[in-house]
Write a structure and sequence with these properties.
Blueprint (H helix, E strand, L loop, with lengths): L2 H18 L6 H11 L10 E6 L1 H7 L6 H13 L4 E4 L10 E2 L5 E2 L1 H11 L3 E8 L6 H11 L4 E3 L7 E2 L1 E4 L2 H4 L4 E4 L12 E2 L2 E4 L2 E4 L3 H7 L4 E4 L3 E8 L5 E7 L6 E2 L12 E3 H17 L5 H15 L3 E6 L7 E4 L2 E5 L1 H13 L4 E2 L2 H21 L3 H26 L1 E2 L3 H20 L3 H12 L3 H9 L7 E14 L2 H7 L2 H21 L3 E6 L2 E6 L8 H27 L9 H12 L6 E16 L4 E6 L1 H16 L4 E3 L1 H4 L6 E10 L7 E9 L5 H18 L3 H14 L4 H12 L15 E4 L4 E4 L3
Parallel strand pairs: 1-17, 1-18, 2-5, 2-18, 5-9, 6-13, 7-11, 21-22, 26-28, 29-32
Antiparallel strand pairs: 3-4, 5-8, 10-16, 11-12, 13-14, 14-15, 19-20, 23-25, 23-26, 24-25, 26-27, 29-30, 31-32
Helix pairs in contact: 1-12, 1-14, 3-9, 4-5, 4-9, 9-10, 12-13, 12-14, 13-14, 14-15, 18-19, 18-20, 19-20, 23-24, 24-25
Length: 766
């Protein structure tokens, strides 16, 4: 038996072994997300309501956190309006400090809240599990009295997560609640919230998720049978009078797979706590100032709230922009976490679930299709046939899993089969290439040198299209640089600086490559990239600008992540040097700000170097211009991106830009018009469109030498958006020079010189 045949037999099990390592990554979860997006939407029920402590509530009530008498008033109103259950995703962990009322009399908000809870028949409170916090025997006794469900039966369960610590609502409140559940909702390793524990263990007892007690009350307090693969609610009394078992499937980790509504959080069945409290305010005003002034508004609001809250399960939690109770789900990057509890309740009442198969099924399935992929690619002789049938096997592999998911609502782990079959297929193809002609050896080398799968596919399909040497290509060059990065170098050690750069460059490079770009090289903190080569793209300019806008959006998240991580103890999995770099940056008030220059046109691109060491790179005047534009951002104090007129003319209408000056940059004599991309159309609101319309009118006034009118418009723009330093720049330019009847000269040290003949500015530095 030849070595090649021996290796062919080994490929399937080795590919499955490598694929099985994906159990420790989030790839399977991301594939599951894609599958879930194709399912019919789960209806949002009218009788499950999210009551948010949002910006309107804070504006109506006052600074957050609210005093507890506020919640007491809201509980009373909700009960009066017929609310079935008021479930608090808010923790009352400590006694409030006494204060004085408007008559300077002692005021004890805890007593008001306690009295409201004692009268209430609808309120559910919470506790939070951990692995270290101890509570007193008395607190534990109260928690068990309120939080233990007396109809739980355990049938061979070994998957339920067990905790060793707990933090509970203060006993004075908890003892008067109708029930209580835990609020723990942990994200996956990629920070997505995909699952939730329906039950959890502590001190040998089983406790319910936050909304579960209220749901069980709605369903007639059925017996709950907990098993490894499912939780069964026995003999549930349905609204139509029928009785049935409701089966809640559990994933391989014992958790429920969440099926979020196909919408943004603010489109849920939602109500602001501020609207409920406004009813309280109206009553107070009516008692103080007489009834007639507010009676119509009161009656209308009362009627609206009554129709919405009557017989509803209400989940109360924070979603204001000033709070930090946010996460990520498959539909929203800034997702308020009270929505997890809402989704859990909505799912159970709709009986809309997703099951998950055991891992061993994925492994067996992966092995079968890996063997099939090897047989196909070794049996077929032609290269085209190998590629076509191999890809067909991969598609069939995923297609079957997708069909099972849709027909049975059963997710069979797809990452292991997909990666295993792909590895088996690619390995067999590569093995064939290694034993074939010189052309196939060239393709093998290309696999190790190209940066994106699209480029690799192009090489495989058309190896003749790539050759050593350069060719003139219409494409777009991208230059990025971190503002004042030298000041970072002064603060950080070599290892800290390297760790920070690797963290930053990885995130930014991924964004460029997502748009089909190729990284030419790194120069310290700078990224030099090209879009439109070696894989030709007619929309190369649009892709490059989209990448730039996405990089600026990612930059905000990076700065937030740095502050968030630095404020906490170092995560165990995080590199020490990177954590130290984050801490030093925050301590010294440093933030990352990326400047990006983009230009399009004809450039020379190709493999350059030697036969043993070559690099795909670009050169030409249009490349140099992109580099110059990156530095021009500093002069105009932009939000970080400048593009040339050549790039702007190639952009589609999905990208909003604003026009700046006509300039001559250093070493480039031809005047060019600058444009600053500000937003993708999908992210822009009506206000931004109006803002850009006024901006263009101001620039037209400036071009027409109507300097007074232009200055007034720029002042209004600067006042409307204080963050817009470009508007402020034009105000300074006009007031200091043009309104004084003069133009900036080199001696003025303003960074530019005005050429009245060409009606353009010459920049004095990069």
């Amino acid at each position: 038996m030849t070595k090649r045949k021996t290796f062919s037999f080994l490929i399937p099990p080795l590919a499955v072994l490598v694929g099985a390592l994906l159990l420790f990554t989030s790839l399977d979860a991301k594939i599951s997300d894609l599958f879930q997006r194709t399912l019919p939407a789960t209806p949002t029920r009218d009788d499950v309501i999210l009551i948010g402590i949002d910006d309107f509530a804070i504006e109506t009530i006052g600074a957050f956190p609210f005093t507890r008498d506020i919640y007491a008033d809201c509980i009373a109103v909700m009960e009066e309006l017929g609310t079935e259950s008021a479930v608090f995703d808010l923790s009352f962990l400590e006694n409030a400090v006494a204060s004085v009322n408007e008559n300077f009399e002692p005021f004890y908000p805890d007593e008001v809240m306690q009295e409201a809870l004692e009268k209430s028949k609808i309120t559910y409170l919470n506790f939070t599990f951990d692995y270290q916090t101890d509570i007193s025997d008395y607190e534990k006794e109260i928690m068990d009295e309120v939080g233990l469900y007396n109809k739980i039966k355990i049938n061979g369960d070994t998957l339920t997560q067990e905790f060793s610590g707990v933090t509970a609502t203060i006993p004075e409140f908890l003892i008067h609640a109708c029930g209580a559940g835990y609020v723990n909702t942990d994200p996956d390793s990629d920070n997505y919230y995909r699952r939730v524990n329906p039950v959890a263990k502590y001190d040998g007892n089983y406790y319910l998720q936050l909304t579960f007690p209220a749901l069980l009350k709605r369903l007639g307090n059925p017996e709950v049978v907990v098993e490894n693969r499912k939780i069964t609610l026995k003999n549930v009394e349905l609204s139509d009078g029928k009785v049935k078992d409701v089966v809640i499937p559990r994933g391989n980790d014992g958790k429920l797979i969440l099926k979020y509504p196909k919408m943004q959080f603010n489109e849920y069945n939602y109500l602001s706590l501020g609207e409920i409290y406004h009813l309280v305010q109206l009553r107070r005003w009516m008692s103080e100032d007489g009834e007639e002034e507010f009676i119509d508004e009161y009656n209308e609001l009362y009627s609206q709230l009554k129709s919405k809250l009557d017989s509803s399960i209400c989940i109360i939690g924070t979603c204001a922009t000033s709070t930090s109770d946010y996460g990520v789900n498959l539909y929203e990057a800034q997702y308020p976490l009270p929505g997890v509890h809402y989704t859990f309740a909505n799912q159970i009442l709709n009986e809309d679930f997703i099951c998950e198969s055991p891992v061993w099924i994925s492994i067996i399935y992966a092995l079968i299709f890996s063997i099939l992929a090897v047989l196909v690619t070794t049996t077929i002789k032609s290269t085209g046939g190998k590629i076509s049938l191999g890809l067909f096997v991969i598609c069939v592999d995923l297609g079957i899993l997708f069909a099972i998911y849709h027909l049975l609502r059963l997710y069979v782990g797809s990452a292991i089969p997909f990666v295993s079959v792909s590895l088996a297929y690619v390995s067999t193809i590569v093995m064939g290439f290694l034993s074939a002609s010189k052309d196939k050896k060239f393709i093998t080398n290309a696999f190790s040198q190209c940066l994106s799968k699209d480029v690799v596919k192009q090489i495989v399909d058309h190896p003749e299209s790539f050759k050593l040497g350069g060719e003139t290509i219409e494409m777009t060059a991208v230059f990025t640089d971190i503002q004042k990065f030298s000041s970072f170098s002064e603060l950080l050690s070599a290892s800290e600086l390297v760790a920070l750069l690797n963290y930053y460059l990885t995130k930014m490079s991924d964004i460029i490559m997502e748009q089909g770009g190729t990284i030419d090289k790194y120069e310290g903190d700078a990224i030099i990239a090209l879009v439109g080569a070696p894989l030709k793209m007619p929309d190369h300019a649009t892709r490059a600008v989209r990448a730039a806008l996405n990089m600026k959006a990612a930059e905000k998240l990076i700065n937030q992540e740095i502050k968030s991580i630095a404020s906490l103890p170092r995560p165990s999995e995080m590199d020490v040097s990177l954590y130290n770099a984050f801490s030093i940056m925050v301590k010294n008030g440093k933030e990352i700000f990326t400047r990006i220059g983009i230009n399009s046109g004809e450039m020379i691109a190709g493999y350059m170097g030697s036969e043993n060491k070559k690099n795909y790179t670009m050169m030409g005047n249009n490349v140099n211009l992109a580099s110059r534009l990156e530095g021009v951002n500093k002069q105009y104090s932009t939000f970080g991106i400048l593009v040339s007129e050549a790039t702007f003319n190639l952009l589609d209408k999905e990208i909003f830009c604003r026009r700046l000056d006509k300039v001559q940059v250093v070493n480039v004599n031809t005047p060019l018009t600058l444009y600053e991309p500000v937003s993708l159309k999908e992210n822009a609101g009506e206000n931004l469109e109006k803002y850009l319309t006024v901006w263009e009118k101001a620039m037209q006034d400036f071009d027409s030498e109507n300097y007074a009118e232009a200055c007034e418009k720029f002042k209004k723009l600067a006042a409307a958006n204080p963050r817009d330093k470009v508007a402020s720049y034009y105000v300074r330019l006009l007031e200091k020079f043009f309104l004084q009847g003069k133009t900036p000269q080199e001696s003025d040290d303003f960074g530019v010189v005005y050429n009245p003949e060409l009606k353009c500015f010459r920049l004095l530095s990069k």
